[in-house]
Each structure stands twice: as C-alpha cells, then as structure tokens.
Amino acid sequence: MTDSELKQFLERAQNGDSAAFSRLYDEFAEKLYRFIFFRVGHKEVAEDLLSDTFVKAWQKLKQVNSPAAITGWFYQIARNNIIDYYRIKKDFVPLEEVAEFLEDAVNPIDTINLNMDQAKILELLVKLPGEQRLVLQYKFFEDLTNEEIAYILNKTEGAIRVIQHRALIKLKDLVKRKSK
C-alpha cells in the first residue's frame, strides 16, 4: 500500500468507514500476528490478541495524527496487549521475564532462513544492551521505520538514530572480536 493510499484509507476509517478499516486490517494483520505469535507462542492466544489489537485500534483510530504513525501505533497496541496478557497470567510467568522476552524474541523462521554469517551476527545481537538490541530488532526484523520505532519506544526519531548508530558500531566491534 502506498503512502497516499494509506492516508486515504486512514482518513476514511477515521470517519467511520469500516471497509477502509478492513483494508488497514489486511495491510497490517499478518505482520502484527507474527509479532504477537513469536512473543506468546500460542496460535489461539495470538489470534485473540490480534483481534483485541484491532478492536482497540478501531475504537481509538481518531488518535492517529498521521499515516506515518499508524504502523508504530498498531505495534504499540499489540505490545501493550501482550504485556496485559502476561499480567493476567502473572501467577505463571514473572513480569520481569516477560519484559526480557519481549525484547529478546526473534522470529525463528527468519533465523532458519539466515545464512551462516547472518546467524553469527544474530548470536552477537543478544550481547547488545536491551534498548540497542530492541531498536535493531524493530528495524531489521520487523521492518519498522525510525518514526515507527520512536513511537513505540516513546522517543524521538533522533534518539532512535543515535541508538541504532551506536548499536551498529558495537555490533561491528563484536563481529571483529569474534572473527579473531
């Protein structure tokens, strides 16, 4: 979907057009499902959380100020739903582990598809500080823009660029050290 189409569908959906919201659903549902599934590990739970994400999105769609923010906004709702899910299950899973899991989760399908050099880089990724690792995961595994990442992490785009730059420098240094 082009930016102009996204803008058009967003505006129509904000004015109550359910068919336009359906197009937004079609655009984002698969990515958001993967994002949720690899953090909860259960198909039915992921489907429920995805549904809840879109229900909440429909109810609060007027909060989105620009089409550029919508992807990050959807991911933020999904992330909050995952956190809420684990809060409800807190008898079974400590919340500290959930926060770490949300940051550390990597798509295993993507991992399988990586060649050997990329797999080595993925191994080193876990050695980065949490925020740096998270920014790189959003950027390169989830294909989010800096603007979308900034929205999710409640930071400025400039801060995201700095974090990403530092993370890439540190990752490059780790690669050099590992190859010695």
From TrEMBL:
Matching Gene3D superfamilies: 1.10.1740.10, Winged helix-like DNA-binding domain superfamily/Winged helix DNA-binding domain
A Gene Ontology molecular function term of the record: DNA binding
CDD domains associated with the record: Sigma70_r4
InterPro entries reported for this sequence: RNA_pol_sigma-70-like, RNA_pol_sigma-70_dom, RNA_pol_sigma70_r2, RNA_pol_sigma70_r4, RNA_pol_sigma_r2, RNA_pol_sigma_r3/r4-like, WH-like_DNA-bd_sf
SUPFAM superfamilies: Sigma2 domain of RNA polymerase sigma factors (SSF88946), Sigma3 and sigma4 domains of RNA polymerase sigma factors (SSF88659)
Keywords, in A-Z order: DNA-binding, Sigma factor, Transcription, Transcription regulation
Domain of life from the UniProt record: Bacteria
The keyword Transcription regulation belongs to this UniProt entry's keyword annotation: yes
Domain RNA polymerase sigma-70 region: 24-87, 124-172
Pfam families reported in the protein's UniProt record: Sigma70_r2, Sigma70_r4
UniProt record, GO biological process: DNA-templated transcription initiation
PANTHER family in UniProt: RNA POLYMERASE ECF-TYPE SIGMA FACTO, RNA POLYMERASE SIGMA-70 FACTOR
UniProt family annotation: Belongs to the sigma-70 factor family. ECF subfamily.
Name listed for the protein in its UniProt record: RNA polymerase subunit sigma-70
Organism field: Candidatus Doudnabacteria bacterium RIFCSPHIGHO2_12_FULL_48_16
